[in-house]
Amino acid sequence: MLPTVAWPDPARRAAFDAWLASIESAHALKIESLRAASSDASFRRYFRIDGGDGPKGSGSFIVMDAPPPLEDVGRFIRVAAMLHAAGLNAPTVLAQDVPHGFLLLTDMGNLLYLGALQEAGARGDLKRCDTLMRDAVRALIQWQTRADASALPPYDDALLRRELQLFPEWCVARECGVSWSTDEQHTWQQACDALVASALAQPAVAVHRDYMPRNLMVTAEHNPGILDFQDAVRGPIGYDLASLLRDAFISWDEEFEIDLAVRYWEAARKAGLELPDDFGEFWRQVEWMGLQRHLKVLGLFCRLKHRDNKPSYSEDLPRFFNYAHKVAARYNALRPLSRLLEPLMGATRLEGFY
Prior knowledge:
The chain is α+β, with helices and mostly antiparallel strands and 354 residues long. The protein has two domains: 10-106, 2-Layer Sandwich (Phosphorylase Kinase, domain 1); 113-350, Aminoglycoside 3'-phosphotransferase, Chain: A, domain 2 (Alpha-Beta Complex), CATH 3.90.1200. 50% of the residues lie in helices and 13% in strands. Strands 1-2-3-5-4 form a five-stranded antiparallel sheet, sandwiched between helices. The chain has a two-stranded antiparallel sheet with strand order 6-9.
């Protein structure tokens, strides 16, 4: 085992070593090549391990370490099967130890959509950005039309409100040190009611729940490769599009956002998805859905900083404040929320945004 792979729990390391040894021959694994691949905002970790030459294995594989009861690899396995059934490009589960939370997966490579888009943008290759994002839109429509969402947990009133509550608890109170007055709390509740009602009024489809460039891969097969899908739910049709267009780590000009949204709206309607006849109303739904997500993420990133000792996520708080303020200020029903956000953002965060 390479020293770069740390195991705080010796018993878990022993279980991992035993499982890996049990599948070593079947997949021609080179145990000594195990190294860290990535981690995410959850408790999951990912390793990369090389396979031997010949029919049993070649190239590399990904190993997931998802400690129960904090994580449930069963959900990953089920949603991966849904994605494959829908004809989409997702990792294949090659071996599993569900009780311990270990999976061996096919390796989709190292090139995230995020890196490819940033590189293309830096060199002014807007055609490359457009191609990648259109592929992501196409795959999203395929997911929504072909995936059987009936077995997924509902993105219901309770879950939407639990997510929104992360904002006052972790961002307002913990990160900003602000206590809202009774009137401000009332303003917040009115905004939450409006956002939840808008979300629940949308048709329900399979929702990836984090469909963004950091979870999409540029692959040698067909793009995108789809990752981090284990939290999929049955919920509002506009959610994944909002995630894709207004991302945690890359922002687009609104003209480009609307162009992609129009393309999605036209293609999705042709594919039989139930969307408003008026694009303006659909765009409002997407923006309001995105606002719910952005408020949730503001709270989530602050929780990662203060509870989970992952401070790097807080570097993107200004981006999400800007997303949220822009949408709230645009609609009369949400304008009181925009005024609630402004003191939290600070003058320097607003400067130069519009």
